[in-house]
Amino acid sequence: MRKVSISFVAIIFLLLSFETASACLCFGLEKRTPKEVRIQLNGELKKASLVFSGEVTQLDEFKVTFRVEKVWKGETVEEIIMSTGAIDNGEGKVIRTSCDYDFKLGEKYLVYATGSGEKMQTYQCSGTGQLKISDERIKFLQEITRKKKKPHIVVKRRDKG
Questions:
Q1: Whole-prediction pTM value?
Q2: Mean pLDDT of 35-42
Q3: CA-CA distance, 8 to 28, in Å (whole number)?
Q4: Radius of gyration of the chain from its Cα atoms, rounded to whole angstroms
Q5: Could you list the residue range(s) of the whole structural domain that residue 144 is in?
Q6: Is the CB of residue 84 less than 8 Å from the CB of residue 103?
Q7: CA-based angle 33:36:41, to the nearest 5?
Q8: Neighbours of 68 (CB within 10 A)
Q9: Domain at 125, CATH number
Q10: Rounded to whole angstroms, what are the CA distances from 121 to 2, 51, 101?
Q11: Contacts 24+ apart (CB under 8 A), 19-24
């Protein structure tokens, strides 16, 4: 009986250790056929409620603010504020997962976001990435929107003075 309980404790310990050590596992576009790439890109677009490019203008532990440059899917706005995915556990500790996207202030991104309002966020495996390395996704988005409609380009209006 003692061996069974020691084995049980060891198994529980291993399972808990695996949970905390697990990482977000994404499948990139590399080493895929053109058909597989297209299926993945279509899936990313379908899952997203908003797809846009923009620059991070403000960033804290819980929120990220973007100045929007182009919108491929969703409502056209000049600025987007969304969750970083971090959560305050109520005890002064911030909880993040390995799948939360780690934005950098001043960088430009292509963002595939889900949700709406303050609950909107993105994940590592959503298609979100730095704009400078998102050429294949941008080409796909431009091709898709050319067939349907033109992407929304955000233009700031100037007051006549």
A1: 0.76
A2: 93
A3: 38
A4: 20
A5: 49-155
A6: yes
A7: 125
A8: 19
A9: 2.40.50
A10: 48, 11, 9
A11: 22/98, 23/98, 24/97, 24/98, 24/99, 24/123, 24/124, 24/125
128 close to 111: Cβ distance less than 8 angstroms: yes
Q: What is the pLDDT of residues 90-130, one digit of tens each?
A: 888 999 999 999 999 999 999 999 998 878 999 999 999 99
pLDDT for the residue 136: 93
Q: Say if 127 falls within a structural domain.
A: yes
How many structural domains does the chain have? Answer: 1
One-letter amino acid of 91: E
Examine the pLDDT at 4 and tell me if it is beyond 50.
no
For 26-44, what is the mean pLDDT? 88
- pLDDT-based confidence at residue 160 (cuts at 50, 70, 90): low
User: Average pLDDT, stretch 47-73?
Assistant: 96
- In a domain, residue 120? The reply is yes
Q: Distances in Å between the alpha carbon of 106 and those of 57, 93, 109, 135, 152?
A: 6, 26, 10, 19, 22
25 falls within a domain: no
- Say if residue 139 is exposed, middle or buried (CB neighbours under 10 Å; 0-12, 13-18, 19+): exposed
Burial degree of 87 (CB within 10 A; 0-12, 13-18, 19+): middle
Residue 102 within any structural domain of the chain: yes
